[in-house]
Amino acid sequence: MTDYQNFQSHYERLLQMPVFGINQQEKWAKLSPIFEWLHQHHRAHCAAYANITSSAPAHFSSLENVPFLAVKLFKLMSLSSTPTQNVFRTLHSSGTTGQTPATITLDKETSARQSKTLVKVLQESLGRQRLPMLIIDSPVTVKPGSSFTARAAGIQGLSFFGRDHTYALDEQMQPNWQVIEAFHDKYHDQPVLLFGFTFMVWQYFVKAFQQSSGKPAFERGILLHSGGWKKLESEKVDNDTFKNTVAELFGIHQVINFYGMAEQVGSIFTECEAGHLHCPLFSDIIVRDPYTMKPCGSNQQGLLQCVSVLPTSYPGHSILTEDLGRLLGEDDCRCGRKGRYFAIDGRLPQTEVRGCSDTFMAGDAV
Amino acid sequence: MTNQEILTDAFCTALGIDAGQVTDELTYNTIPQWDSTAHMLLIAELENRFNVMLDTDDIIDMSSVAKAREILANYDIQF
Ligand SMILES: [Zn+2]
């Protein structure tokens, strides 16, 4: 693969293929030239990336050979492969207090690939139709003019799947009872989509309704949520508790979690009927030992590395996260999806994050 | 109004632009008024005006005025 056009046509061919229907070996045959091109592209357009990866091989014999950057690098420096005049949007991850948010530079092309891929992957869970959508967040989050956070980007990306978008929370993050009731009256007997960030859904929606007498039933609702469990750890809320509570309160039995990082918008990993997170054709997962950086064995806990074919505007095609998880298997989930599937266990404690090398090269670790 | 006029009017209403700006070449994300938020307004406007239900593929494919006409034609809207 030599030029950008060629890369783009490779990507467009992927869009035509089954998202979860290609086995791991065949998938790697399709992705390896793309990752080799992305690596060269970012070496040529981002000096910091070129520096960090200077000892990486030009050809990747396996997925585990793709060099990666630690996610905290995106907080420490501005990593971009885009000339200033082509910057279309700058995305800021919502760093908690005291943390520098990561800055992600998007050009129009990367942004378009993100939307297209998100739609393609989620169509596998939701179908192509758009459902009346209740967003478990406040309209303030996506107010134009405010800084564009990863949360706003998430809501905006997901809004493609809805119609009659209705925000369930008010500006104080309290349930907007009237709005919810009106939405319920209008749509309670038909399929609806509810979407929110896991913590927000639990803290401001589930808990509020646990304490109220009336609970809106959405028997044909699908609840899609993402964002991780970290903030819910102290309350001992895990995926099963979450699902059972939502089913009990609202009669919603289709609850789909997905995993994705703000630094790789569009590349998401959706939960299947068996409760496993799956890698779509456009992205993949490697689990690494936090100390040696060597790939972990099956079901062995380690740090997740996410690779994605989408980003050309910033060198984020291979990122080592601070999330802990386990690879559960490859091509053999009982749901029938091909490729890798995994589970998330939580986050690496901050103290240990600091101990990890920023620039560990895959070549050193395999 | 002809369907072309309705289409132009829908773009004007949803994006807050003048009819003169609604040319076949007008493309998503090339003017500040046609961003992803306005895109959803545009979809809703087109659905109301032409009485169709667009799916997620249509939203992704609707990258220009010309493309919008092409997609609506799939729903038996004639231009
Ligand atoms: Zn599965």
Could you walk me through the main structural features you see in this protein, from its secondary elements to its overall organization?
The complex is a heterodimer of chains A (366) and B (79). With 366 residues, chain A is α/β, with parallel strands linked by helices. Mean pLDDT of chain A is 90; it is low at 355-366. Chain A is built from 11 helices and 14 strands. Chain A has helices at residues 4-15, 24-45, 47-52, 73-76, 108-126, 150-158, 177-187, 198-210, 239-250, 350-355, 362-365; strands at 69-70, 89-92, 103-106, 131-135, 162-167, 192-197, 221-226, 254-259, 269-271, 277-278, 283-288, 302-308, 318-330, 340-347. In chain A, the strands form 2 sheets. In chain A, strands 1, 4, 5, 6, 7, 8, 9, 10, 11, 12, 13 and 14 form a 12-stranded mixed β-sheet that branches. A two-stranded antiparallel ribbon of chain A has the order 2-3. The radius of gyration of chain A is 20 Å and the shape is globular. Chain A has a domain at 114-259 and 356-365: Rossmann fold (3-Layer(aba) Sandwich), CATH 3.40.50. Chain A is 32% helix and 21% strand. In chain A, α1 (4-15) runs antiparallel to α2. With 79 residues, chain B is mainly α. Chain B has a single domain, classed as Non-ribosomal Peptide Synthetase Peptidyl Carrier Protein, Chain A (Orthogonal Bundle), CATH 1.10.1200.10. In chain B, 54% of the residues lie in helices and 0% in strands. Chain B has helices at 3-15, 36-50, 56-61, 65-73. In chain B, α1 packs antiparallel against α2 (36-50). The interface between A and B is medium-sized, with 20 and 13 residues. Bound molecules: zinc ion. Zinc ion is lined by residues 272, 274, 276, 278, 333, 335, 337, 341 of chain A.
